[in-house]
Write the structure tokens for this entry.
Amino acid sequence: MIYWIANSAVIFCLCVLLAGFLIPQILLIAYRRNLFDEVNERKIHKGLVPRLGGIAFVPVVFVCIAVALEANYKLGFTMLGDAFSDTYLPLISAFVALELLYLVGIADDLIGIKYRAKFAVQLVCAAVLIGGDIWFSSLGNVLGINEVSPWFGYPFTMIVIVFLINAINLIDGIDGLASGLSSIACVIYGISFMLLGEYAMAVVSFATLGVLVPFFYYNVFGNVQKHSKIFMGDTGSLTIGLILAVLGIRLYVHGVEPTLGLNTAVLAFSPLIVPCFDVIRVYMLRIRQHRSPFLPDKSHIHHKLLAAGMKPRMAMISIVSVSLLMCVANILMSRYLKINITIIAVIDVLVWTLANIRLARIIRARRASEDNAA
């Protein structure tokens, strides 16, 4: 275990250092070439901010893992290479899908791509992942259902992958939110895979965390006037969404593990509750209002918190804290109270619904107060 902790820590640090070096270079190029995120009525930020931070994510993860593999080989340690060899098919399919989505993200950030084209590429990426044996062969005892046939598992997996990619993309609305939520997921996934003995997936989790940490710093604490602020853009949000989809599905299908004493499906879906529940709520709202669910608006959870009077940073901290609390609560309910995953999911839905109802009332009261004052 010490070997794997050391390798994960080294790869994490390498990713932090390399991403921390590349992001300022990306900022420099963006300002020299006038590559900025456009400001419109939906955007919260003011001033010119580059949105190319995500360009660093995939190359840094690939390079740092490759360097670690080579260093281990040169030093005579083969266990890291063996771990990647044991999961070579899922990892190869994940790397291929990541490259496809990475190129599409860059094109979208630079020149813009219609959502139909992005959706088509996401479907191709999902098909590649399924071909690499990344699919829901089990539903983790949801509604009492465990193993499922490929006839159900393949299309269901495709829907989930595309949904998760877009959930991370759409939650990326205020500084630090998408990276903060994704970091929580990477920590939980990394520790879980480490305890389960899936060391290659643990390494990927911690490597992804390594690129998110320096980005979070520049995104949240960067200064527009000092040209040190950056967004991840679609390149970042799409690829991070795909990585979390891969890690989440791999963890989900483990089932009940004596090592952890709980259903790994709980560990898999808990970190993704906030972006997934938010997207479902927003899509349902848009459909109910006879609008396209794919056209952007200001109805996401972070928009609602801002409308309730919160500052952007406090809204980010609140949402990330809620996500972390829900993860801890779900894990405790599964491990110590032995509550079924279906009941846990129902509790999460009820909590989320009641919280949104309460938030809506606060917003209405605030608007009524402002109207009376006017």
Remarks:
- Residues 42 and 296 are 8 Å apart (CA to CA).
- The chain has a mean pLDDT of 90.
- The beta strands are 138-142, 145-147, 256-257, 262-263.
